[in-house]
C-alpha cells in the first residue's frame, strides 16, 4: 500500500505550482524609479572644496575663490541620474548658444576653451560660480570625460547678473537679458534670483520670449549661510515670470534640501547637491549646490533639445522638458527622455508653461481605476485558487480516509497486522 504522505507531498507540490503560475499574473506592474545614485558628496567620498555662489560683501578686500588642488576621479551622481552618457549619443547641443547670467565665465577655463564668448567684466569671474555652471552646461570634462556637461557642443555667452562678489543686481540682470536677446541666444539661463519684480525685468523677459529664447531661471536664490527655518515662502524673479521655466534643486533621493528656500510654482527639479565641476583657475574640481546648479542642468537639456529639434518653438521645447520629466511630487528633469520621447500634439502648447501656472507641468495617467481592478482580480484569483484546492483535497483525501475507516494516517487497524 502506498504511504499516504507521498500523496500529500504531491498535493502540496501542485499547490505551489498553481500559486507560482497564478499569483504573478495578478500582481500590479509599476514603473521603476531612476537608479539609486551614489552618495551625495558627488565623488565617492573624495573631499573637494565647495564652490561659493557669492563672496562676503562686508570685507574690505576681495579675495577671489582659490584654485582647487583636488581633482575628481570619476563621474558624480548627478550625471548618472541624468543619464548623460546615453543622452550624448542622441545630441550634444551643437549649434545652440546658451546665455548664462551669473558671475561671469573665464573663457579659457579648463574644459571650456574655444566655446565661450565673454566681453568686458563678463570674462572675469572672481567668485568662480559662473565658470562652474558653464562646465555643467557645456564643459567637455577635460581629463575626466564623465564630468562633461549636458550639452558639451553648445556655445556659452557669458553675461554678468551680479557684481564682482556675486551680489545680484536687478539692473544687471535686465541688461544681461537684453544682451542675450540681441545675441539671438537659443537658451537663456538666469542662475540668480531676485526677491522682487519690476516692469523692466518683466519687459526684458517678454522680449526674450518673443525673440524665441527658452528662458530658464533659478526658482530661488542659493541658500544663505544663516539658515532658512524662519523664511516665508515667496516667489522669486524672473522665475515667476510667465513662460519662464522655474527650476529648483533636488537631492539624490529626489527631495528638496532641508535648507532650500521655500517657494511655489516650480516647474522642474534637477540635481543640486554634491555636483562636481571645474572653476576659473587651474584644473581642479569643486562641489556645488543650489537651484543655480539645477538651472544650469536644465539649460543644458534645453540646448540639446533645441539642437535635436531645431524646428520646435521655445514653447514646444519648454513643454517637452516638463512633459517628459520623471513624475514625482515635483517633476524631475530627464534630458534623455526629452530628446527621444515622441509626444502627442498638445493642441495648445502655451498651456504647458506660461501665465497659466495652475496647469500641471506633467500629465500623469490616472491609474487608480486600474489599480482597483487589479486588486479585485488578485482577490478573485486567491478565492478561486482556494476553492480549487478544497475540491482537490476532497477528491484525494476523503476516499483514502474512508478506506482507513476514518482512522488517522499511520494508525494500525485490526486488519493491518
Automatic annotation (TrEMBL):
Top-rank taxon: Bacteria
Protein name: Serine protease
Active site residues according to the UniProt entry: 102 (charge relay system), 129 (charge relay system), 292 (charge relay system)
Sorted UniProt keywords: Hydrolase, Membrane, Protease, Serine protease, Signal, Transmembrane, Transmembrane helix
Record keyword Protein transport present: no
Ranges for region Disordered: 33-61
Alphabetical list of PROSITE patterns matching this protein: SUBTILASE, SUBTILASE_ASP
GO process annotations (BP): proteolysis
Keyword GTP-binding: no
All copies of domain Peptidase S8/S53, residue ranges: 93-331
Naturally occurring in which organism (per UniProt): Streptomyces mutabilis
Amino acid at each position: 500500500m502506498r504511504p499516504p504522505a507521498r500523496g500529500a507531498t504531491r498535493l502540496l507540490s501542485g499547490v505551489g505550482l498553481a500559486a507560482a503560475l497564478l499569483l504573478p499574473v495578478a500582481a500590479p506592474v509599476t514603473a521603476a524609479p531612476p537608479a539609486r545614485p551614489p552618495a551625495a558628496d558627488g565623488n565617492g567620498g573624495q573631499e573637494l572644496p565647495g564652490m561659493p555662489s557669492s563672496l562676503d560683501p562686508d570685507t574690505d578686500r576681495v579675495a577671489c575663490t582659490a584654485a582647487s588642488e583636488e581633482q575628481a576621479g570619476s563621474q558624480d551622481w548627478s550625471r548618472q541620474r541624468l543619464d548623460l552618457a546615453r543622452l550624448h549619443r542622441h545630441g550634444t547641443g551643437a549649434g545652440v548658444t546658451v546665455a548664462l547670467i551669473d558671475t561671469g565665465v573665464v573663457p579659457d577655463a579648463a574644459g571650456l576653451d574655444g566655446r565661450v564668448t565673454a566681453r568686458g567684466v563678463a570674462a572675469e569671474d572672481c567668485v568662480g560660480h559662473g565658470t562652474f555652471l558653464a562646465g555643467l552646461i557645456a564643459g567637455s570634462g577635460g581629463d575626466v570625460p564623465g564630468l562633461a556637461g549636458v550639452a558639451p557642443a553648445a556655445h556659452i555667452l557669458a553675461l554678468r547678473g551680479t557684481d564682482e562678489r556675486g551680489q545680484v543686481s536687478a539692473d544687471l540682470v535686465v541688461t544681461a537679458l537684453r544682451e542675450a536677446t540681441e545675441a539671438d541666444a537659443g537658451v537663456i539661463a538666469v542662475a540668480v534670483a531676485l526677491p522682487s519684480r519690476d516692469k523692466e525685468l518683466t519687459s526684458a523677459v517678454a522680449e526674450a520670449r518673443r525673440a524665441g529664447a527658452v528662458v530658464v531661471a533659478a526658482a530661488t536664490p542659493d541658500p544663505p549661510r544663516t539658515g532658512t527655518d524662519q523664511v516665508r515662502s515667496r516667489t522669486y524673479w524672473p522665475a515667476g515670470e510667465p513662460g519662464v521655466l522655474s527650476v529648483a534643486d533636488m537631492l539624490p533621493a529626489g527631495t528638496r534640501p532641508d535648507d532650500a528656500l521655500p517657494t511655489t510654482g516650480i516647474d522642474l527639479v534637477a540635481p543640486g547637491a554634491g555636483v562636481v565641476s571645474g572653476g576659473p583657475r587651474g584644473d581642479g574640481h569643486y562641489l556645488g549646490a543650489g537651484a543655480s546648479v539645477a538651472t544650469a542642468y536644465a539649460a543644458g537639456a534645453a540646448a540639446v533639445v533645441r539642437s535635436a529639434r531645431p524646428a520646435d518653438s521655445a514653447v514646444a521645447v519648454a513643454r517637452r522638458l516638463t512633459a517628459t520629466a520623471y513624475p514625482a511630487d515635483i517633476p524631475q528633469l530627464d534630458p534623455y527622455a526629452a530628446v527621444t520621447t515622441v509626444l502627442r500634439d498638445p493642441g495648445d502648447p502655451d498651456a504647458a508653461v506660461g501665465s497659466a501656472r495652475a496647469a500641471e507641468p506633467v500629465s500623469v495617467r490616472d491609474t487608480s481605476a486600474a489599480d482597483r481592478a487589479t486588486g479585485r482580480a488578485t482577490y478573485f484569483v486567491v478565492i478561486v485558487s482556494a476553492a480549487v484546492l478544497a475540491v482537490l483535497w476532497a477528491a484525494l483525501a476523503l476516499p483514502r480516509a474512508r478506506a482507513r475507516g476514518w482512522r488517522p494516517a499511520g494508525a494500525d487497524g485490526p486488519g493491518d497486522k
